[in-house]
Amino acid sequence: MDKFAGFNWPKRPWTLPYGSFESRAEALRKPKVWQNLYVNPSYTGFPWADPWLPVLEWSYADTFLRGGKRAYRADDWSGTEFRGIVLVLPNRRGFLAGYTDDVWARVDYDIYDDRRDAAVCADQMAMCACEREIEYQAQLAFEEEEIRRLEQEEREEDETQEL
Predict the structure, then answer these.
(1) Is 120 inside a domain boundary?
(2) How far apart, in whole angstroms, are the C-alpha atoms of residue 27 and residue 19?
(3) pTM of this prediction?
(4) CB 84 within 8 A of CB 60
(5) Residue at 7 is within a domain
(6) Mean pLDDT computed over 7-16
(7) How many Cα atoms sit within 13 Å of 157 on the Cβ side?
(8) Are 105 and 122 in contact (CB under 8 A)?
(9) CA-to-CA dists, residue 130 to 66, 67, 138, angstroms
(10) pLDDT per position as a tens digit, 98-155
(11) Residue 103: its pLDDT value, please?
(12) Is residue 16 part of a domain?
C-alpha cells in the first residue's frame, strides 16, 4: 500500500468499485439473482434434493453440539423434523448456518469462523422455524374452524327462514 495525502492507497486503483457512492449503495440494496431464483440478500432457500444445490460440504449441526440428535417437530403425525445444518465454504474460509426440514433448506449468508458458532446458530434457526410452523398450523386450524362455524350458522339461519 502506498500513502497518498495521508490515506492508504491501493497499488491497483482500477480495482476500486465504479460509480458514485449512491449508485454502489443502490446496487447492494437490489436483490441478487442466483440460477434463476429470487434470492433475498440476507438468506437463501432451496429445495433440499435440488440438482442445483450448491456443492458445499455440509453436516447436521448436532454433530458439533453436545446432547446427540437435535430435531424439532412441529407435530406428531407428519414426521417432519427441523434440523440445523452447517455448510463449509470452499478452502475452509468459513462456515454458513442454516436449517432443513428434509424437503426445503434455508441458509443464512452470515459467515462464521468457528464450526461450533455456526452449529449453535443453525440449531437456533431450526428451533425458530419449527416454532413458526407450529404457529402457522395453529392459525390455519383456527381459520378452518372459524369457516366451519360460519357455514354452520348460515345453514341454521337458512333452516329457520324456511320454516
Answers:
(1) yes
(2) 10
(3) 0.63
(4) yes
(5) no
(6) 58
(7) 6
(8) no
(9) 20, 19, 12
(10) 998 877 888 888 888 889 999 999 999 999 989 988 898 899 999 999 999 999 999 9
(11) 79
(12) no
* CA–CA gap between residue 111 and residue 39 (Å, rounded): 17
124 within domain boundaries: yes
What amino acid occupies position 157? E
Quickly state the pLDDT bin for 33 (edges 50, 70, 90): very low
- Helix or strand run (H / E) with residue 63: none
pLDDT of 65:
86
Beta strands, E only, 48-146: 57-60, 72-73, 81-88, 95-100, 104-112
94 CB burial (10 A radius; 0-12, 13-18, 19+): middle
Helix (H, G, I), strand (E, B) or coil at 52: coil
Q: How many domains in the chain?
A: 1
Distance CA 152, CA 160 (A): 12
The CA distance from 103 to 48, in Å, is 5
Phi/psi of residue 133, nearest 5 degrees: -65, -40
pLDDT tens for 40-92 read 445 566 666 666 666 778 888 988 887 777 888 888 777 788 999 998 888 87
Q: Quick check: 61 and 70 in contact, CB under 8 A?
A: yes
**In terms of residue numbers, what domain contains 89?**
43-162
